[in-house]
From TrEMBL:
<comment type="similarity">
    <text>Belongs to the AAA ATPase family.</text>
</comment>
<keyword id="KW-0067">ATP-binding</keyword>
<dbReference type="Pfam" id="PF00004">
    <property type="entry name" value="AAA"/>
</dbReference>
<feature type="domain" description="AAA+ ATPase">
    <location>
        <begin position="135"/>
        <end position="267"/>
    </location>
</feature>
<keyword id="KW-0547">Nucleotide-binding</keyword>
<protein>
    <submittedName>
        <fullName>SpoVK/Ycf46/Vps4 family AAA+-type ATPase</fullName>
    </submittedName>
</protein>
<dbReference type="InterPro" id="IPR027417">
    <property type="entry name" value="P-loop_NTPase"/>
</dbReference>
<dbReference type="InterPro" id="IPR003959">
    <property type="entry name" value="ATPase_AAA_core"/>
</dbReference>
<dbReference type="InterPro" id="IPR003593">
    <property type="entry name" value="AAA+_ATPase"/>
</dbReference>
<dbReference type="InterPro" id="IPR050221">
    <property type="entry name" value="26S_Proteasome_ATPase"/>
</dbReference>
C-alpha cells in the first residue's frame, strides 16, 4: 500500500499519548484494511497497538521509579546549596524536620479534613501510583496575609517526612532578568535532584510579572521559564506554591497546580480555639476569651498570635493589670491589626464598650458577664446604661 510507512509513523506518534478516540480510529483503519485483504499492513497496525498497550502497562512503575520519594538523593545540612552566580546569594533555604512547626495550624473542621486528605494522598503516593491512581503532586495555597499559609505548607511537608526547600525570592530575582531565568532553572534542578518538598512562598512576585503593564519580553521569558520548570517538576516531587495575591497570578500558573486551596481568615470558633491554644499556659475565663475573640473580629491568625504574645509580656511585666485596659493599650499600638469598629468601641470609654458588647449578636454577652471584665458590679453597669439612655 502506497505511503503506508507515513500512516505507520502517524499512528505511532498518536499512540505516544493514547486516548480512546485515537485507539478507536486506528482500529477502524485496521478493520478497513482487513476487508481489503491488506494482511501485511493489518499485522503492522496490530504490532503498533500492542506495543502501545504494553507501554501503558509499564507506565505506573516507570513513574514510581522516577518519582522523587524513592529516586532522589537525600538532603543533609552539609548539602551545598545553589547560589546566584553574580551575588553569591543563596537561592534556597532548607528546613529539616526539627526546623518545621511542631503543631498543626488551627483551621475549621472542614479545612482540617481537606488538609488530611492531601497529607494522606502524599504519604501513600507510591501505593496510589501502583493502582494507577495518579495522585496530586502540587498544591497552591492562597488567602489573606497572616492566615497561616506558610505554617500550613511547612506542616504538610513535615507530615510526609520530607525536608522543605524554600525558594528565596531575594536570591532568585536578579536585577538581570536573564540571570533570574537561570536562577529559576537552577532552583528547580536542585529541588528535582533531592527528595524534598519545594516551597515557592510568596511566589506571585515572579508569577505576576507577566501581567505587569511595564512588561518586557525578557519578563515574559522569566515567567515562561517558571511554567516550564513547574511542568518539569510534575513527576519529580511535591511542590507547594503560596500566595496572598491570587488574583495577580497568571491563569497558566493556576493550571499547573493540581490542588488549589484557599485559607480563610479565622471564624469566631477558630479564633477562640487559636487564642486558647496560643495563650497556654495563661488561662482566661470564658468571657475573657470571648472578649479577646470579639476584639479580633476580621483579624488574622498572625494578629491573634501578636495579641497573645503581648498579653504574655504584660503578664510577666505587670501581672496585676486588668484585661480591658491592657487591650486598650494593644489597640492603640496595633491599629492595623484591629478593625476600626472594634478600635472605636474600645477606646471611647466604658459606656461605648459595654453597649458594643451587649449589641453583639455572635457572642451573646450578658451584663453579668461583662461586669467582672470591667471590674464593676452588674448593678453599676445597669445604672451606667440607664444614665446614658436618659442623656
Ligand atoms: N490558623 C493558624 N493556626 C496557627 N497559627 C497561625 C494560624 N494563622 C497564623 N498563625 C501564626 O501566625 C504566624 C504567621 O503565619 P504564617 O506566616 O503562616 O501566615 P501567612 O498566611 O503565610 O502570612 P503571609 O501571607 O503574611 O506570608 C505564624 O507564627 C503562624 O504560626
Ligand atoms: Mg507566608
Amino acid at each position: 500500500m502506497q505511503h503506508f510507512n507515513i500512516i505507520q509513523a502517524l499512528c505511532r506518534s498518536a499512540l505516544a499519548n493514547p486516548t480512546d478516540a485515537i485507539v478507536h480510529q486506528i482500529k477502524r483503519l485496521k478493520e478497513a484494511l482487513e476487508k481489503d485483504g491488506q494482511t501485511k499492513e493489518v499485522n503492522s497496525l496490530n504490532g503498533i497497538l500492542n506495543s502501545s498497550q504494553a507501554n501503558l502497562e509499564m507506565a505506573p512503575s516507570k513513574i514510581q521509579k522516577s518519582f522523587v520519594l524513592s529516586a532522589g538523593e537525600t538532603l543533609t545540612r552539609k548539602t551545598v546549596l545553589p547560589v546566584d552566580k553574580e551575588t553569591s546569594t543563596a537561592l534556597v533555604e532548607v528546613f529539616f524536620d526539627d526546623d518545621l512547626p511542631a503543631e498543626p495550624p488551627i483551621f475549621s473542621h472542614e479545612i482540617q479534613i481537606a488538609i488530611e486528605a492531601i497529607i494522606n494522598e502524599w504519604v501513600k503516593f507510591e501505593q496510589l501510583i501502583q493502582l494507577q491512581a495518579i495522585p496530586a503532586s502540587s498544591c497552591l495555597i492562597y488567602g489573606s496575609p497572616g492566615t497561616g499559609k506558610t505554617h500550613l505548607a511547612k506542616w504538610i511537608a513535615k507530615q510526609i517526612g520530607l525536608p522543605v526547600v524554600l525558594a528565596r525570592l531575594e536570591g532568585l530575582m536578579s536585577s538581570f532578568l536573564g540571570t533570574t531565568s537561570r536562577n529559576i532553572g537552577n532552583l528547580f534542578a536542585f529541588a528535582n535532584r533531592y527528595n524534598c518538598v519545594l516551597l515557592l512562598d510568596e511566589f506571585d512576585a515572579i508569577a505576576k510579572l507577566r501581567n505587569d503593564p511595564q512588561e518586557v519580553g525578557e519578563v515574559k521569558r522569566v515567567v515562561n521559564t517558571l511554567l516550564q520548570s513547574l511542568d518539569s517538576r510534575h513527576e519529580r516531587g511535591f511542590t507547594i506554591g503560596v500566595t496572598n495575591h491570587e488574583t495577580l497570578l497568571d491563569p497558566a500558573i493556576w493550571r499547573r497546580f493540581d490542588i488549589q486551596m484557599q485559607v480563610p481568615k479565622p471564624s469566631t470558633d477558630v479564633l477562640l480555639h487559636l487564642i486558647t491554644k496560643l495563650a497556654a499556659p495563661l488561662n482566661f475565663s470564658e468571657t475573657e476569651l470571648k472578649f479577646l475573640a470579639w476584639s479580633l473580629e476580621d483579624s488574622s491568625g498572625a494578629d491573634a498570635k501578636m495579641l497573645v504574645q503581648w498579653l504574655k509580656r504584660v503578664q510577666v511585666i505587670n501581672p496585676d493589670s486588668e484585661l480591658v485596659p491592657v487591650m486598650r493599650q494593644f489597640v492603640l499600638l496595633n491599629a492595623g491589626r484591629i478593625s476600626g469598629e472594634r478600635r472605636d468601641a474600645m477606646v471611647r470609654g466604658d459606656e461605648t464598650l459595654i453597649q458594643a458588647l451587649l449589641a453583639d449578636k455572635t457572642f451573646g454577652f450578658k451584663q453579668k458577664d461583662i461586669a467582672p471584665l470591667l471590674n464593676m458590679a452588674p448593678s453599676s453597669i445597669s445604672k451606667l446604661l440607664s444614665r446614658t439612655k436618659e442623656n
